[in-house]
């Protein structure tokens, strides 16, 4: 009888790993402790629940590395991408989803699969036998975290991840705000008007920065230390780095024209993105925060158009743990000291929903192939997945290892192409063309090996 694959964690990585392995004919048990054991950020017991944002970021598979990762996952029959496409919301050139039906679909499809069983007990240690994938993500339970630290013999690295607030659409003043994607990006009118924009003049911006800096912040527990991941900084931390930082980040005013004052150029713009299919909820883009709840409502209501905002969810902050993968994992995502155990998702040191799901896809396929007795080759380094896994399992400097989003800086150079900004468009297209060819070749080889 075929050995069972056990997957701990039912987030993006665990769900995708289970889907891939089950489709290869392996019996899978997903061990998801929710809803019996909750976390700070999760609201339901659904698999694939999105807790930080409803965006999978850019869907451009020719000029953007995360869009290329979308393409590779779709080509591999990925559960997360197909479910995201089913519940897609207008978001310009990004892939945003209606988060609740998305998670419900992921859960229903896994429950319906004949090779998948879902168990709701908490796993608190690393088993000695059997094939396991640990995909517990940034909110690994304390007991399991301690077991991982004890096994690896090293302190887990950590940073704090912050959640952006969500506003009820009906409470936004549309006499001050307007709908427009930056640079009118998108092929349809719905895509070109996917973002809600709130403009600030110089005085409003300066007052907003002062309020951010003075606001009460959440305190960390005694003895709790960590560094932030630059891709998910709280806005008040960005403001502390310089008063202009937000104007060159989430509040940049470029590519937008205010129809209420077409001749006036905004000094800064706050953008909100639709968070559900009904269009009743909008999340404030890039506004992760560690401010206390009372301070959040006061500060965010300083934003023109949000003076009377009602919040469906305020921002929050939580501890995020990950392992030092370059020292602990081999190129097949196995724990070097315990090769029956693999890690996948954010706990490996990738950052973002898409990257987490991609690492789950690889871990699920690699583990299933080992169980079935036809070990797959590692993902080609010239693919987006291959570049990312190469980085976390050996390409990164172990002493300074930090969470990483997929980006073209992880790709090997293409010979004969210009460097610098002027050659970027051709260079990125060359990266994506080469990656698609490499990935498609890998999928074809996997199919032949399995036949």
Please provide a written account of the structure:
The protein is of the alpha+beta class and 451 residues long. It has two domains: 5-156 and 323-450, FAD/NAD(P)-binding domain (3-Layer(bba) Sandwich); 162-319, Elongation Factor Tu (Ef-tu), domain 3, CATH 2.40.30.260. It contains 13 helices and 17 strands. A six-stranded mixed sheet has the order 6-2-1-7-17-16. Helix 1 links the parallel strand 1 and strand 2 (28-31). Helix 1 packs parallel to helix 11 (353-372). Belongs to the MnmG family. TrmFO subfamily. Pfam families: GIDA. It is found in: Cytoplasm.
Observed structural traits:
FAD/NAD(P)-binding domain, Elongation Factor Tu (Ef-tu), domain 3, 33% helix, single chain, globular, 13 helices, six-stranded mixed sheet, six-stranded antiparallel sheet, alpha+beta, 451 residues, 2 domains, 17 strands
- Encode the helix/strand succession as letters: EHEEHHEEHEEHEEEHEHHEEHEEHEEHHH
CATH architecture level-2 label of the largest domain:
3-Layer(bba) Sandwich
* Overall pLDDT score: 91
Strand content: 15-25%
Helical residues, percent: 25-40%
- Spatial separation of the terminal alpha carbons: 19 Å
Low-confidence stretches: none
Number of domains: 2
Radius of gyration: 22 Å
Number of strands: 17
CATH topology of the largest domain: FAD/NAD(P)-binding domain
Largest sheet: 6 strands, mixed
CATH superfamily of the largest domain: FAD/NAD(P)-binding domain
Shape: globular
Number of helices: 13
Q: What is the CATH domain class of the largest domain?
A: Alpha Beta
Task: Return the structural class.
Answer: alpha+beta
Largest sheet, spatial ordering of strands: 6-2-1-7-17-16
Family: Belongs to the MnmG family. TrmFO subfamily.
Protein name: Methylenetetrahydrofolate--tRNA-(uracil-5-)-methyltransferase TrmFO
Main location: cytoplasm
Enzyme class: transferase
């Amino acid at each position: 009888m075929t050995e069972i694959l056990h997957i701990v964690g039912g987030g993006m990585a665990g769900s995708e790993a289970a889907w891939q392995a089950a489709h290869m004919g392996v019996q899978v048990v997903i061990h998801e402790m929710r809803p019996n054991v909750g976390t700070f950020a999760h609201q339901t017991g659904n698999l694939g629940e999105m807790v930080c944002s409803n965006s999978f970021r850019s869907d451009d598979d020719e000029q953007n590395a995360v869009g290329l990762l979308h393409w590779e996952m779709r080509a591999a029959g990925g559960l997360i991408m197909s479910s995201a496409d089913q519940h897609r919301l207008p978001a310009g050139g990004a892939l945003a989803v209606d988060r609740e039906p998305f998670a419900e679909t992921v859960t229903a499809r896994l429950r319906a699969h004949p090779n998948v069983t879902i168990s709701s007990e908490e796993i608190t240690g690393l088993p000695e036998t059997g094939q396991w994938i640990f995909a517990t993500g940034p909110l690994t339970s304390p007991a399991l975290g301690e077991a991982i630290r004890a096994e690896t013999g090293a302190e887990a690295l950590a940073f704090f991840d912050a959640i952006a607030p969500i506003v009820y659409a009906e409470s936004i003043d549309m006499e001050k705000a307007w709908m427009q994607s930056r640079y009118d990006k998108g092929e349809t009118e719905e895509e070109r008007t996917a973002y809600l924009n709130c403009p600030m003049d110089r005085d409003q911006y300066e007052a907003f920065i002062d309020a951010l800096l003075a606001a009460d912040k959440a305190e960390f527990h005694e003895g709790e230390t960590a560094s932030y991941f630059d891709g998910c900084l709280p806005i008040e931390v960005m403001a502390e780095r310089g008063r202009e930082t937000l104007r060159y980040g989430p509040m940049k005013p470029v590519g937008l024209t205010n129809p209420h004052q077409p001749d006036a150029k905004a000094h800064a713009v706050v953008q909100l993105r639709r968070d559900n299919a009904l269009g009743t909820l909008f999340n404030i883009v890039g506004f992760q925060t560690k401010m206390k709840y009372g301070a959040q409502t006061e500060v965010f209501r300083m934003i023109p158009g949000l003076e009377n905002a009602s919040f469906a969810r305020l921002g929050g902050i939580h501890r995020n743990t990950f392992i030092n993968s370059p020292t602990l994992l081999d190129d097949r995502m196995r724990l070097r000291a315990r090769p029956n155990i693999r890690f996948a998702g954010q706990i490996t040191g990738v950052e973002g929903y898409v990257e987490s799901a991609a690492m789950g896809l690889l871990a699920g396929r690699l583990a299933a192939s080992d169980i079935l007795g036809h070990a797959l080759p590692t993902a080609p380094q010239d693919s987006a997945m291959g570049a990312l896994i190469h980085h976390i399992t050996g390409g990164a400097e172990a002493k300074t290892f930090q969470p990483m989003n997929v980006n073209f800086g992880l790709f090997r150079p293409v010979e004969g192409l210009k460097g610098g900004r002027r050659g970027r468009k051709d260079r990125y297209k060359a990266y994506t063309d080469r990656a698609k060819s490499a990935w498609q070749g890998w999928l074809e080889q996997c199919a032949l090996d399995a036949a």
